[in-house]
């Protein structure tokens, strides 16, 4: 079996066996990864690379918004965050603005880090 195929199988297995909270964490990680790639694209003036990866981040944010359970009050807070990030991603893509994209990246890191803390507290029985 070729190494890339084995890696793909491992990732697929990891996704299929993950709990919902872990899947959300993976989505945040993916958004950060694509945001970093988009930033690299802007830095190297590879506009196509930047555009494609900003779109990937937007799709992840859109998915996270669509899966919110609005019966919980905290969901509105996430909706507000995701809505803001979506707007900023559109602006960043239209203007090809690394500063805006950097701001989005900072927010994504913050949300991801807070999500990890919540997961850790739940795992310890504190949540």
Give a short overview.
The protein is mainly α and 127 residues long. It has helices at residues 3-16, 20-43, 47-66, 74-95, 98-123.
Question: Can you walk through the features of this model?
Answer:
The protein has helices at residues 3-16, 20-43, 47-66, 74-95, 98-123. It is mostly helical and 127 residues long. It has a single domain (19-121), classed as Four Helix Bundle (Hemerythrin (Met), subunit A) (Up-down Bundle), CATH 1.20.120.340. It is globular, with a radius of gyration of 16 Å.
Relevant terms:
83% helix; mainly alpha; Four Helix Bundle (Hemerythrin (Met), subunit A); 127 residues; single chain
Q: What is the succession of H and E elements?
A: HHHHH
Rounded radius of gyration (Å)? 16 Å
Could you tell me how far the N terminus lies from the C terminus, measured between alpha carbons in angstroms?
43 Å
Class by SSE composition:
mainly alpha
Largest pleated sheet: none
Overall spatial form: globular
Secondary structure layout:
Layout: H1 3-16, H2 20-43, H3 47-66, H4 74-95, H5 98-123
């Amino acid at each position: 079996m070729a190494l890339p195929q084995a890696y793909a199988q491992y990732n697929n297995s990891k996704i299929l066996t993950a709990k919902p909270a872990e899947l959300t964490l993976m989505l945040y990680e993916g958004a950060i990864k694509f945001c970093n790639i988009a930033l690299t694209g802007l830095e190297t003036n590879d506009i196509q690379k930047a555009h494609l990866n900003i779109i990937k981040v937007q799709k992840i944010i859109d998915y996270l918004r669509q899966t919110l359970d609005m019966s919980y009050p905290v969901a509105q807070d996430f909706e507000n965050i995701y809505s803001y990030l979506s707007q900023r991603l559109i602006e960043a893509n239209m203007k090809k603005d690394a500063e805006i994209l950097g701001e989005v990246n900072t927010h994504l890191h913050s949300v991801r880090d807070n999500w990890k803390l919540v997961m850790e507290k739940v795992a310890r029985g504190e949540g």
